[in-house]
Design brief:
heterodimer; A: mainly alpha; MetI-like fold; two-stranded antiparallel sheet; B: about 290 residues; alpha/beta; D-Maltodextrin-Binding Protein, domain 2; 2 domains; 11-stranded mixed beta sheet; 15 helices; 11 strands; about 45% helix
Chain lengths: ~325, ~290
């Protein structure tokens, strides 16, 4: 009896204390929330800055060594065992460029097509089935895609193109395209779906057909979001490691055609870093290669962000 | 399954380092790492050891009651020595002779011969080269792996004009180093060679590709029904030839310990050099006992 009475007394006291503090409590909550989110933002941005600085610090000696940035990117090949060691990464960035170009040129049109289909054409039932499928596809680990390509694409290339061995930039690019289609498709479908209904209706009221409305009105309206879709796909393509390691052939020769073998930057780093001595020129060259990749990704993202902002402002 | 197990062990090693450091219990766990050639042997050996003696006091009554834990991870021979120097691991697994520079850096150290591995030149049995040739000279191999010979026709006129696909390990692997040193000499590996990240991946690729030529652990090559090995200077890469030291492309499989080994490390090394020798043989390598 006494216990429950005391408990009731206590809860009454707490509730009166709460109501008296209600106003200041809310503002306190707000302040706490504001600061914690600010802190999280700083932490996230700080991580990016710290990573960039660390990579730059490790890469720094190479950039100002005997052959410099020019040697690293253009003139030298990758021969870590020769004397003196040649540590150029031209084969790697050319491979990365080739694989990414192949992947994007296939995945972007296909992804946009799927996006338009989901947002505009598909009946609700198909739409509801398709979107989770895309999300599932986007969530499959890259090693699974890599293995899938290794057991299907590689033997297929060998038999149908009479290649001595099926690993090639094209094989890596194809699998990479399959990997990024879900990203491009679902992001662009979202962007298209977010276009206000009255914009569509206004266009249709002017008597244009559905095709015209989709390509000239909808896509234009959703362009910033579709750009974001491409950026997402590009980021994944540039950074993808395991699938390209398994499929590109991992050869250090300079690739001359999509059917040649190559070694994208990520594959170069994962192949060589484990054996590179701490502080050795080889390790520095690998960090320099990583820096190149990071700078490219940051630059591309900035550019796409700019374009997106310009488009948003241009319309308003 | 074994691969998966060793990967788990590798991850466990990282976790183990953190938890052990936190508990301040440095003696309980042994960490071994390095050569991917030694990895399957050591992974099996360590799990056998852990199953046999659950706790250290069962190995030796004077040791603690902590559970026997041996973490084994891959990374390559170079990684093994590097991690040994930085103190991340207790036993470096190295599948080549230690270099003078490494010996100097290590200072006082012990290296134990677990077994020997021969690097064999092999093709898969569907490769027509296997029927034409029985062996190579080092000079022939050097021109083959440097990419001077581009098609099978250039090796032998009766062979088809198919391009030769060279398979290699990455530049840091023990087998690459020994091949460079004893065969290639001044020549460089062909940049067109496919670099595979492990001996297992190399074996898989070689078995699957009819145009490929590779240098691969003789244990793996001789145990595979799908591969044909070649003699080097008329010496076949058989266990007997490796044991006698006749086959030139052989390398030692070493466990290296920096400084004087701790009691736990010494017990595990003893176990590896006795009971685990059958595992060494089981993987197709030449155990140290018959080597000596």
């Amino acid at each position: 009896m006494t216990v429950s009475g005391a408990a009731g007394n206590f809860s009454a006291r707490v509730s009166s204390w709460r109501s008296s503090l209600a106003v200041s409590e809310e503002s306190l909550q707000e302040t706490v929330a504001r600061f914690s989110f600010l802190f999280l933002l700083i932490a996230a941005l700080g991580t990016l800055v710290v990573v960039l600085l660390m990579v730059a610090r490790e890469a720094y000696p190479v950039l100002f060594s005997r052959s410099g940035l020019w040697g690293l990117l253009i003139t030298e090949s990758w021969e870590p065992l020769s004397e003196p060691a040649q540590l150029g990464v031209r084969h790697a960035w050319i491979s990365t460029l080739a694989v990414t170009t192949i992947a994007l040129s296939l995945a972007v049109p296909l992804g946009f097509g799927i996006g338009i289909f989901i947002a505009e054409i598909a009946p609700a039932a198909i739409k509801e089935a398709l979107q989770p499928c895309l999300e599932l596809l986007a969530g499959i680990p890259s090693v699974v895609y890599g293995f899938f390509g290794y057991v299907t694409l590689v033997p297929w290339f060998e038999t149908s193109f009479e290649m001595a061995t099926g690993e090639s930039l094209l094989a890596a690019g194809l699998i990479l395209a399959v990997m990024i289609v879900p990203f491009v498709a679902s992001t662009s479908a979202e962007a298209l779906g977010a276009v206000p209904g009255d914009v569509k209706e206004a266009a249709l009221a002017l008597g244009v057909n559905r095709c015209w409305m989709t390509t000239r009105v909808l896509v234009r309206h959703a362009a910033p979001g579709m750009f974001a879709a491409v950026a997402l796909g590009l980021g994944r393509a540039l950074g993808e490691t395991l699938a390209v390691l398994m499929l590109a052939g991992n050869s250090v020769a300079l690739p001359a055609s999509p059917l040649d073998r190559g070694q994208p930057i990520t594959a170069l780093i994962i192949t060589e870093l484990g054996e590179a001595g701490v502080g050795s020129p080889k390790q520095e060259a690998l960090f320099a290669a990583a820096l190149v990749l990071m700078v490219v990704i940051v630059a591309v993202n900035t550019l796409i962000g700019r374009l997106k902002r310009r488009m948003l402002h241009g319309r308003v | 399954m074994k691969k998966l197990f060793s990967i788990l062990l590798g991850m466990g090693m990282l976790v183990g380092m953190v938890t052990n450091a936190a508990a301040g219990d440095q003696d309980a766990a042994i960490r071994a790492g390095g050569s991917t050639t030694l990895l399957p042997i050591m992974a099996n050996c360590s799990s056998e050891f852990m199953e046999k003696y659950q706790t250290w006091d069962r190995v030796d009554a004077s040791l603690s009651k902590a559970a026997t834990t041996v973490f084994v991870t891959g990374g390559g021979s170079g990684f093994g020595v590097k991690s040994l120097l930085s103190g991340v691991i207790d036993i470096g697994m190295v599948s080549r002779d230690l270099k003078d520079k490494e010996k100097k850096l290590l200072g006082e150290h012990q290296s134990y011969l677990v077994g020997k591995d021969a690097v064999a030149i092999a093709v898969n049995t569907r490769n027509p080269l296997g029927a034409r040739k029985t062996g190579f000279t080092p000079a022939e191999l050097a021109s083959l792996f440097s990419g001077e010979l581009k098609s099978y026709q250039e090796i032998d006129r009766s062979l088809p004009a198919k391009p030769i696909v060279l398979l290699s390990r990455d530049s840091g692997a023990g087998s690459t180093e020994i091949f460079q040193e004893k065969i290639m000499g001044e020549k460089k590996f062909s940049p067109k060679a496919l670099q595979l990240p492990s001996q297992g991946a190399l074996l898989e690729k070689l078995q699957a590709n009819n145009n490929a030529v590779a240098y691969i652990s003789s244990g793996l090559a001789l145990n595979s029904k799908n591969l044909k090995t070649f003699a080097l200077d008329n010496v076949e890469p058989t266990d007997a030839n490796v044991t006698k030291g006749n086959y030139p492309l052989a390398r030692p499989l070493l466990m290296v310990v920096k400084g004087a080994p701790a009691p736990t490390v010494r017990h595990f090394v003893d176990y590896a050099l006795s009971s685990c020798q059958k595992i060494v043989a089981g993987h197709g390598y030449v155990p140290a006992r018959s080597v000596n």
